[in-house]
Amino acid sequence: MKKFKFHLLTFVAMLFTVSSTFAATSEVKWTNPDDYRDIRPGESHRKHFKERTFNTLEKHFAKLAEKLPEGQTLKIDVSNVDLAGDVNFGGARRYRLIKEIYFPKMHFSYQVVDMNDVEISSGKADLKDMNFMSNSGLRYRNKSLGYEMKMLDDWFKDTFK
Fold first, then answer.
1. What is the DSSP annotation of the chain?
2. Which of 4, 34, 106, 136 is most deeply packed, by most CB within 10 A?
3. For 80-131, how does the pLDDT look when each residue is reduced to its tens digit (9 = 90+)?
């Protein structure tokens, strides 16, 4: 019985290893992030806010890439980010004010390659969601960068039908 359990666990572990080896992945490069239009924090430290923002967006690109066929890699080179809202100063405090006139924007180039690094598709994306506050079905309503993630979802759906 012990031998059977050992072989079963080994087989299951092997399945997870093999499937993750061929799963679609993503790579994100942040080109000149100090020149981005708006990646300023409200109440938090600028460096930590930028790291959290990049980390959140990288995870979201990875989640989107999982929808691609196995073995493909989505390579993203981000050249500009303008988050929804604008940071205003209210006395000694800073806060991000979300209004229709401060819509999210993101500019990047993308490339999808196969396991042998052969290009399958590529292009540029100049995204902006001027109607971001009217989307009543916002999946990421209570999430940080929800408007930006929704905008990326729409881009991915339109680009990789």
1. -HHHHHHHHHHHHHHHHHHHHHS-EEEEEE-SGGG-SB---SSS-HHHHHHHHHHHHHHHHHHHHTTSPTT-EEEEEEEEEE-SSEEEEETTEEEEEP-TTS--EEEEEEEEE-TT--EEEEEEEEEE-TTGGG-TT-TTTTSTTHHHHHHHHHHHHHH--
2. 106
3. 999 998 887 666 677 788 889 999 999 999 999 999 999 999 999 999 999 9
